[in-house]
Amino acid sequence: MDLLGDDWVQIHRRTVQQHANHYKRNHMLLFLLVSMELESPPILQSVMMAVCDTFRSGAVKQLRTHARRLQIPIFEKGYEKDPICCSKGSHPEATRIGSDVVIVDTAGHMQV
């Protein structure tokens, strides 16, 4: 089993789908991760990832890679942007594209 390759993605996709019925549409989940090991939440009908870690070097690029591998859309404003604006802007975008859940990477910013 290749935990860093396609097997990892399939395992997390299955885990996420198993828990899909526990959440309502446009439910926002906050993950305050110490490391960047992405532990996927349940993928409902559709999940979007919001990048609010806008100051750490490589954070946006790293989450782009995770989103691409998980085949989910990503909402980002780029580097050196206000994390609160990024978080607030993700909800209307999720509604626009029909995502049920927004995974918000806050990088530990409790105000987000």
- Strand order in space, largest sheet: 1-4-2-3
User: How many domains would you count in the coordinates?
Assistant: 1
Q: What percent strand?
A: 15-25%
Write down the overall mean pLDDT.
70
Largest sheet: 4 strands, parallel
Name the CATH architecture. Answer: 3-Layer(aba) Sandwich
Q: What is the rounded Rg?
A: 13 Å
Q: Would you identify the CATH H-level superfamily?
A: P-loop containing nucleotide triphosphate hydrolases
| Poorly predicted spans | 32-37
Structural class call reads alpha/beta
What separation lies between the terminal Cα atoms? 36 Å
Shape: globular
Which CATH class is shown?
Alpha Beta
Percent range of helical residues: 25-40%
Number of helices: 3
Number of strands: 4
CATH topology: Rossmann fold
Protein name: SRP54-type proteins GTP-binding domain-containing protein
Membrane topology: Peripheral membrane protein
Organism: Coptis chinensis
Keywords: GTP-binding, Membrane, Nucleotide-binding
Commentary on this structure:
With 112 residues, the chain is an alpha/beta fold. It has a single domain, classed as Rossmann fold. The protein is built from three helices and four strands. The protein has helices at residues 6-18, 59-70, 83-97; strands at 27-31, 47-51, 74-75, 101-105. Strands 1-4-2-3 form a four-stranded parallel sheet, sandwiched between helices. The radius of gyration is 13 Å and the shape is globular. The relative contact order is 0.24. Residues 32-37 have low confidence and may be disordered.
